[in-house]
Amino acid sequence: MENLIKVAKGEKKADLVIKNAKVVNVFNNKIELTDIAIYNGIIAGMAQNYEGDEEINLEGKYLSPAFIDGHVHIESSMCLPKEFAKAVVPEGTLTVIADPHEISNVFGLHGISFMREACKNIPLQVYMMLPSCVPATQFETSGFDLASYDLSFLIDAPEVLGIAEMMNYPGVLNCNKEVMSKLKLGKSKYKKIDGHAPNLSGKDLCAYVASGVMSDHECTTVKEAEEKLGLGMYVMIREGSAAKDLQALIPILKEGNTDRCILVTDDRHPTDLKGHINDMIRQCVSAGVNPVTAIKAASFNTAKYFGLNNLGAIAPGYKADLLVFDNLEDFKPQIVFKDGQIVAQNGELTVDTEHNEIPKLRGSVNVKWIEHEDFQIPAKTDTVKAIEIIPGSLLTKATKSKIKIVNGLAESDIENDVLKITVLERHRATGNIGKGFVKGFGLKSGAIASTVAHDSHNMIVIGTNDADMELAAIELVKSQGGKVVVNNGEVLAKLPLPIAGLMSDKPFDYVLEHCNMLREQVHKIGCKLDDPFMTIAFLSLSVIPELKITDKGVFDANCCKFIDIFES
To answer: CATH for 66-314?
Structure first.
């Protein structure tokens, strides 16, 4: 500390001086031309005429605090953390608050431990929130159940900031004993409790906030966001691959009080990682949001909420996590500094991540022997209640749809875009298979399947015929997880995900290439959706209205019960 003080006073040379920088000051909301002195990875001072062992003259370019993603599931990138870092660090994201909810549903505490180890020795600071809902509900089968007792083993870890999104808001409102225990665990340690409460309002929302939940990333309208902000919540404005709420909520960032607005990505496909939080800022600014306001929502506001008191700003005593921009329009960093060291330049990582060792995990796709009959649905009538996709949203609709009946069995009606959908339990080989119909995928032939299916990540299959659905499922058993497109008995594209059925052990570029191949091939067999595999991943998320499907059947999230798809 003594040396830091001496550097700040100008009595000792800094390790690095960044000269002639237009600094984005998140405290006075101004942009100021000054020099920045850095010592031992910490900002010592902001003034003219500092001297350093190394000096970089920005010649009037902009200097911003690095970005913080306030809520992300790294597993959704289908990449290991080191490969995730390769994608997002050059985009300016140097800190993430990760919820290892996905891998926890497969491996429990062992999954969290795996992610903690996998995040070591990478140029990305990863903090964690402990998953609060594993499984998300009792209406699905997960690999593990995590009780408050389990979470207590990790709550004191320095990288753990609190309890992750409390999706079971009915459990909060009904004072469920286990839910209460998890809330009390977080509050007893003075740690944050994140929320997940789509459309919750009025007195029920008051009760949810009173329980200690302080944030929400499920707002889809300005009205919803304003109510939650008015009750003291932090609103996490999300722009994921499937759920895109940014454009609808940008008006919030144009209002006077934006200190409780945070930019997050939640779930992002590899194709959406080249352009991360910085792309959200670009969209905000292009829509008329003040650049400093947008940057604060991506840095200082997030750090303040999570109590990361040395992050998110450029000021004495703060970590030298900094970004250099040529302008405040496209927000593509030219230089990325982490702890005062250059870690990326011109969109490329400049440090090595190969010394990051990955722990071993067992296989996770454990299914009962798959038979052709597993995909058959005996017909009661020619009308079903189908799950209708809402493009760009996690929400779905219940819609009455005609299906075809062949030899007493309900079959897909390809012309009317009503396709068969099944969810096969893949953790405990129970043989559970949920069966229903989905509208909005547009497949004209073939089938697609994935072991990425929130939140319990059972195997989900959509198809035009039983034979291709069976083949798709068998292919994912062979690769111990992944995503696949098949047509007429042929595998068109496949991405193996052998790590928990969620992540690849290959480099980011490999994953990205195979994701593009999957998208290309699924579009060739008629799919209408821009990112069908991200959409399919959320069709089993039973906490999101309206209709979803789990390994136990078709579920009405509004009524909180399973339905008979043949009943009106």
So the answer is: 3.20.20.140
